[in-house]
Write a structure and sequence with these properties.
229 residues, mainly alpha, 13 helices
């Protein structure tokens, strides 16, 4: 199995998409003018990264505002006495303590399942992921309670820097594709998967622009950050 390097060349991706997809390329130029240049490489692609900790934080962030989730994460870190959430540190806290931090019952069950799976060696570490393809990583992580395909796709894009990820169930991605292709409605996930074939092998970079396109078209020109931690 070949080794997957974290990250890709954003400039090469920009040039490829602009050359091979006229409609997306036109929108990319519009985004670049508003953003004072193309979307750059994400520094998180080269940063230290613990998959278990990232998954635990993703669980805690679900269905909460960033501020509320950050507050709960801070309380959990204080309770476990560590900035790293994993089997060893979470295992030192009983359920009542974590609930007192603001962790809901469902999220507590998800954290316990994640920790148990890590203890059994079922969660691949960063070194193992480097030798796994995208589908294998998804298959390894979605059985975890509270972890869906979208969460894993965000990890693949923003932390592992895999270049060819298209989250077809994401509403922002679907909305962006609707504007690019001037469709009457958002494309269904299966249709979007077919449309997205023309953006390979840089569907991750296309997705970054699709989010921005949706924001701009909806009149909310704000930077996009789809991953916690």
């Amino acid at each position: 199995m070949p080794r997957h390097v974290r990250g890709f060349d954003a400039q090469a991706a920009h040039e490829h998409l602009g050359r091979t997809c006229r409609r997306l390329g036109a929108w990319m130029k519009r985004v670049d003018r508003l953003e004072n240049g193309p979307i750059p490489n994400d520094p998180r692609w080269r940063g230290r990264f613990d998959p278990v900790d990232a998954l635990a934080r993703a669980i805690l962030f679900q269905q909460l505002s960033g501020k509320a989730a950050s507050t709960i994460v801070g309380r959990v870190e204080t309770a476990i006495g560590s900035a790293r959430l994993h089997h060893g540190t979470l295992g030192g806290c009983d359920d009542a303590t974590l609930r007192a931090c603001g962790v809901s019952g469902n999220k507590l069950l998800a954290l316990r399942d994640l920790a148990a799976r890590e203890a059994r060696g079922e969660i691949p570490d960063l070194r193992a992921m480097a030798h796994m393809d995208n589908d294998a990583i998804v298959a390894a992580l979605v059985p975890i309670r509270g972890i869906g395909r979208w969460t894993v796709e965000m990890m693949l894009m923003f932390r592992l820097g895999r270049p060819d990820i298209l989250p077809v169930d994401d509403l922002g991605i679907r909305k962006g594709a609707q504007y690019v292709d001037k469709l009457e409605a958002m494309p269904a996930p299966k249709v979007l998967a077919q449309i997205g074939e023309r953006w390979g092998p840089y569907r991750t970079y296309a997705s970054l622009y699709l989010w921005r396109i949706a924001d701009i078209a909806e009149g909310a020109a704000k930077p996009v950050n789809r991953s916690q931690g």
